[in-house]
Design goal:
368 residues, seven-stranded mixed beta sheet, 14 strands, globular, alpha/beta, Aspartate Aminotransferase, domain 1, Aspartate Aminotransferase, domain 2, five-stranded antiparallel beta sheet, 2 domains
């Protein structure tokens, strides 16, 4: 990956395009789907394993608010996995819902969010929509995060740093020790989204003693396949935990989402699902490689192209019933693409369609 990435390196400056600040939540990857799309490779979080959920809706009192005891029980199940105090965990509307709340709390009086050139875009939209600013730090030549450059760009206006691990969309995983050592060098909160951490098969930050300025967000949307239920959790400590508890309601999650999350933790192993996703990821990347389309090494349930493609390439895909996520680059009208792993029949059809288009035609849109 490192040698190939050098071919598309774009410099070492901090990148902040004006068009970025104009974006909002309607620019999300999955917001606008073409009705003619037959192969959706944007969807991220499909559950590939067979599972049988034993939920009797008649036993769930949907005319009542979520039970505090059940909320605490779910938190205790999560805490037991990582040998943590359950009171350090909060529940929310998936990882993204919790991140939105953190933005409201930390940027209530403005300020700057530091993030990386290629990262989950929802925090950026949230900050700019309430009057804050976002500064993006360029990646290293191999698309890894340059932590030294992040530190250099911290100033009095920096209210938080946002990172993903594995990173979205690049798929790169960072050893937890690296993130912990980084956190010890700064005095601002670091929000780390571990939405796809299970697919890396590496250690979570939750397996370590953490400095109080690290906030870890997790979700049941990816490896657990509960994206439609919008449930996740976060680990906070110190003043950040106190700030969240005092200002955000506990009742952001539904009774149903809590009960199904509990059942997933108690009765259903996600290991087979994780292995199936990894296997399909490897299948997709291998097939693309045989076609001459290089992608970045990924530890996630999605992966990104190594090279950029002209906007016309994405229109060509749409004409053939395919959608992939378009990832901004610093070159106008050129984008990377991100592919999310789907079930094998869909992945196979995706590769088939690309082969029918032909690499020679695809190559015409590639920026070398």
């Amino acid at each position: 990956m490192r040698n190939l990435a050098k071919n598309v390196w774009e410099g070492e400056l901090i990148m902040k395009k004006e068009k970025d600040s104009e974006k909002n939540f309607t620019n999300d990857y999955s917001f606008d789907k073409d009705e003619n799309c037959e192969i959706d490779m944007v969807l991220s979080g499909e559950y590939l394993d067979k599972r049988k959920l034993d939920i009797n809706l008649n036993n769930i009192n949907i005319d009542e608010y979520p039970d505090n005891n059940r909320l605490d029980y779910l938190k205790k199940l999560i805490a037991e996995k990582y040998n943590k105090n359950y009171e350090n965990f909060i529940l929310g509307a998936a990882s993204n819902g919790i991140i939105q709340n953190l933005v409201k709390l930390l940027f209530a009086k403005g300020g700057t969010l530091l993030t990386t050139e290629y990262s989950f875009s929802q925090p950026e939209y949230a900050v700019t929509r309430i009057g804050g600013k976002v500064k993006k730090v360029k990646h290293n030549q191999d698309f890894t995060i340059n932590f030294d450059n992040i530190i250099k760009n911290i100033d009095k206006n920096t209210k938080a740093i946002f990172l993903c691990n594995p990173n979205n969309p690049t798929g790169y995983y960072y050893d937890s020790e690296i993130l912990i050592n980084f956190a010890k060098k700064v005095d601002v909160p670091i929000i780390v989204s571990e939405a796809a951490i299970e697919f890396s098969k590496n250690k979570s930050l939750l397996e370590y003693d953490l400095p109080t300025n690290i906030i870890v967000t997790r979700t049941f949307s990816k490896a657990y396949g509960l994206a439609g239920l919008r449930i996740g959790y976060a680990f906070l400590s110190g003043k950040y935990l106190e700030l969240y508890i005092k200002n955000i309601t506990r009742f952001e999650v539904s009774i149903l989402s809590v009960e199904i999350a509990i059942q997933m933790l108690e009765k259903i192993s996600i290991e087979t699902n994780i292995n199936l996703v990894i296997s399909e990821r490897e299948y997709l990347q291998k097939e693309l490689k045989t076609m001459g389309i290089d992608t970045l090494t990924s530890f996630s349930n999605a992966f990104m192209s190594l090279r950029m493609y002209k906007n016309d390439f994405f229109e060509l895909l749409k004409q053939n019933g395919i959608t992939v996520a378009q990832i901004d680059s610093s070159f106008e009208n050129y984008y990377y693409f991100r592919v999310a792993v789907r079930e094998h029949s869909i992945n196979k059809e995706f590769i088939k369609k690309l082969k029918e288009i032909g690499y020679n035609k695809i190559k015409m849109f590639e920026r070398r």
